Amino acid sequence: MADSHPLIRALARATMAYPFKMWGFGEGIALEALWLADELAPGLGCRRFVLDRYETWLARGIEECDHSASGVLLLDLYQHTGDSRCMTRALELAEYLRGLPITMHGAALHRPQHPDYHAYLYVDCMEVDAPFLCRLGAITGDATWTDAGAAQIRAYCALLQDNASGLFYHQYDAETGTVNGAFWGRGNGWALLGLIKTLGVLPAAHAAFPELAARFRRLASALVTRQLPSGGWPTVLDQPNTYEESSLAAMFGLGLALGIEQRLIDHGVRSVVDRAWSRTVERLADGSLDSVSVATPPGDAGHYAQIATGRGYPWGQGPALWLALLMAPPASAR
After folding, report:
1. What gap in Å lies between CA 159 and CA 156, rounded to an integer?
2. What is the Cα–Cα distance from 307 to 189, expressed in whole angstroms?
3. Which partner from 49, 86, 203, 310 sits 20 to 30 angstroms from 19, CA to CA?
4. Residue 67 has pLDDT above 90, yes or no
5. Which domains does the chain possess?
6. pLDDT digits (tens, 9 = 90+) for 204-253
7. Taking a C-beta distance cutoff of 8 angstroms, is the pair 111, 64 a contact?
8. What pLDDT is attached to residue 1?
């Protein structure tokens, strides 16, 4: 595509315009995409931008707000720069995660200090915990980290994936043993990406691999059947009358494309990815993805249907940029 690199450059510029301030999943996926985009967007300083953001983190210790930090990118930085501070911080983050309280099912409760959220676990954390821990295990050769990551995402799946539909709920309350009861679209994006990123680093011979692959395929199948004629998805996945939310086309297109690349789903799903990519491009304005819902707390279907939208949020920009890297350049440039 003749315009592939200009589109990537526009997405990267718009992504870097966001005022990054946290290292959680929402901002982490945008930084991961910028790191990957550097080669195809020369002159923009994407990797320098990422390194500068992480310098702020490396200069301080682990804090409660780091409970959903992007550890995978921290390991990318370590392998690229050889900076021992990155590995030191990665091990600190891993120990922090290992020290979190867990439910009787083995799933970590990320915010035990918070008076209101101490008993909750969230689908969003699937995208950060297990991929990081499994990658840490691969780099260090310490299989206990790999096992911890696999156990963590299996526990989240057991609590949050609906047996009937294959879709994921947003939240589980460990005190009541209940889920929030609605299939929030972006939450399923975090689940899809968490599963495929974990499967990308988890050894195929690992005992958890078959189950996680099956759960990924069930979710992928559920998403394929719910794609709208536009190529996007509704913000409440089993309620097509709710508004179309743009981060979903980017997230689901990315997750399904990676699933095809890893040969976990059939290449026939490519048509779904192509429609999702086309819809993502339609929702871009000067590289900024529009109609993306703001940071969203758990609730019922009516709650999600009324969440405000805006443009340029990193949880939309990151998946859109990453999907562009897969779709726009020729295979030889990836």
Report:
1. 5
2. 17
3. 86
4. no
5. 4-333 (1.50.10.10)
6. 999 999 999 999 999 999 999 999 999 999 999 999 999 999 999 999 99
7. yes
8. 36
Query: Residue 251 is encoded by which pair of tokens?
Result: 């997230």
